């Protein structure tokens, strides 16, 4: 594998047969995808909920539940990334409308993170049930992550940027799995106060992302209708 720096925040990455596809990876776009989805999913904020749902399980069952939840979330998000554009075309929904709706939705999620009024599901029995619902969806693959992914797909130009989105999603899911895998250690290190602080910071960042989405949607609508008239 050979790494060569390019221009405009890109890096040339050659890896044998994958060289033509990984020739120019936009690191800026990759960072945007990774940070946005990571803030929305909020792994530190997921730790208390995960432990509440799996606290009575054996360590092996807890790890399996976390793995199943991450795999389900990955499948749901990738599914919407692939079929989202087709669904939008079928419903005749334009990107600015999706941006505005996504921004409003993310505002609600951000307010929940900032105020600490997130709804923690009641404790359930059964590893599979907990892994599928509510851990896999809607907690990990929630509306916010789905909408954000669809917006990134809308913005992508060419296979290179689709690949960047896929890498970003995969990195986020790997991060979530690692956090859930070592959730017990994380709680001991950060303690409840530390997790609460990180959750508030995530809420603030998410609110900023939401406001930017709404502003972009309004600007796009103004430009669209100004050009029409």
UniProtKB/TrEMBL annotation:
UniProt topology in membrane: Multi-pass membrane protein
GO CC annotation, single: plasma membrane
Membrane-spanning intervals of the chain: 33-53, 65-83, 95-114, 135-156, 162-180, 201-222
Compartments where located: Cell membrane
Signal sequence segment: none
Keywords: Cell membrane, Membrane, Transmembrane, Transmembrane helix
Entries under Pfam families matching the protein: MarC (PF01914)
Family listed: Belongs to the UPF0056 (MarC) family.
Protein name as catalogued: UPF0056 membrane protein
Lineage: Bacteria, Bacillati, Actinomycetota, Actinomycetes, Micromonosporales
């Amino acid at each position: 594998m050979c790494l060569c720096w390019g221009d405009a925040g890109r890096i040339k990455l050659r890896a044998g047969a994958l060289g033509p596809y990984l020739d120019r990876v936009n690191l800026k776009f990759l960072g945007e995808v990774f940070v946005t989805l990571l803030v929305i999913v909020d792994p530190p904020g997921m730790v208390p909920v995960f432990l509440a749902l799996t606290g009575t399980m054996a360590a092996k069952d807890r790890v399996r539940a976390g793995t199943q939840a991450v795999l389900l979330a990955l499948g749901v998000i990738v599914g919407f990334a692939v079929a989202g554009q087709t669904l939008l075309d079928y419903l005749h929904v334009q990107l600015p409308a999706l941006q505005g709706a996504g921004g409003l939705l993310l505002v609600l999620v951000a307010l929940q993170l900032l105020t600490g009024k997130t709804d923690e599901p009641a404790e359930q029995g059964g590893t599979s049930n907990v892994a599928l619902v509510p851990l896999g969806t809607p907690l990990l693959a929630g509306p916010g992550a789905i909408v954000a992914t669809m917006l990134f797909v809308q913005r992508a130009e060419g296979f290179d940027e689709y690949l960047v989105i896929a890498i970003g999603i995969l990195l986020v899911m790997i991060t979530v799995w690692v956090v859930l895998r070592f959730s017990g250690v994380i709680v001991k290190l950060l303690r409840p106060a530390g997790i609460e602080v990180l959750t508030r910071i995530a809420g603030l960042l998410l609110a900023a992302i939401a406001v930017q989405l709404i502003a972009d949607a309004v600007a796009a609508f103004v430009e669209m209708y100004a050009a029409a008239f």
